[in-house]
């Protein structure tokens, strides 16, 4: 159960008095998640998600609030936080920072269809295009500098072959990306896996869980998405999904020449990012709660596949449709 701080109906009913969203009807703890306490809240005026933040830096929460407000104002399918009667979104409840969001309908796609890949690529392209004008700043906590520092924490748990693989890869990234100063930057999601989206059929109803959001390379964000959304069970690319997602993305934001040249290496770097972060959870910094860590081997294998097979060609410019 991912409710680490239980709440009573009376606590939540009193909390809701701060907002103009009606009175409490039902309160339900959400049995998923790894870091925060989450509840479904139904009032006589609608359905909402209440999140209590259990760990992390609370001084970073205003960045997330501002980013979600900004993206929602630009008509992205993002749940902008609910503001109270005084215009304040970030609250306190049960001695925890708290945010209330509209609850979007839909389910996470387990095996994305081509239509879902196109819709997600289009939405991500639109998000990256407008996020370049977002004024908030939060450094990427999982960037190349972090990889170089964090690798030393897991080396003693790896085989000699994996030690060489990780060390050689990070050395390569430092050479390749060290002079890549013209990679487009903006606000990124930072963790846009399938389970951070909601679909009703082939309609994208929501992009959720922005708590890895930060300022960084847009290509980094795109590579995380493509590795998850377009890989088959063996880690190979599904060419049709790959083309659908990247074609729709580039119709909104075409990659520049530097991004195109660095694309295969960025796919490797983001694969290693998750291999390393999952190793840290297993061996160094286990979750504070009784939760099963994700398998680091999945992304170790994905990295090996990217090294062996590279990346398929990016869809040609002629495949892009014009987009407003």
TrEMBL record:
PANTHER family on file: AMINOGLYCOSIDE PHOSPHOTRANSFERASE DOMAIN-CONTAINING PROTEIN, AMINOGLYCOSIDE PHOSPHOTRANSFERASE DOMAIN-CONTAINING PROTEIN-RELATED
InterPro entries named among the record's database cross-references: Aminoglycoside_PTrfase (IPR002575), Homoserine_kinase_II (IPR005280), Kinase-like_dom_sf (IPR011009), Pseudomonas-type_ThrB (IPR050249)
Stated family: Belongs to the pseudomonas-type ThrB family.
Gene source species: Chromohalobacter sarecensis
Top-rank lineage group of the source organism: Bacteria
Domain Aminoglycoside phosphotransferase, first and last residues per copy: 27-255
One Pfam family hit: APH
EC primary class: transferase
CDD domains: HomoserineK_II (cd05153)
Catalytic activity: L-homoserine + ATP = O-phospho-L-homoserine + ADP + H(+)
Keywords noted in UniProt: Amino-acid biosynthesis, ATP-binding, Kinase, Nucleotide-binding, Threonine biosynthesis, Transferase
Signal peptide feature range: none
Protein name, entry field: Homoserine kinase
Gene name for this UniProt entry: thrB
E.C. numbers: 2.7.1.39
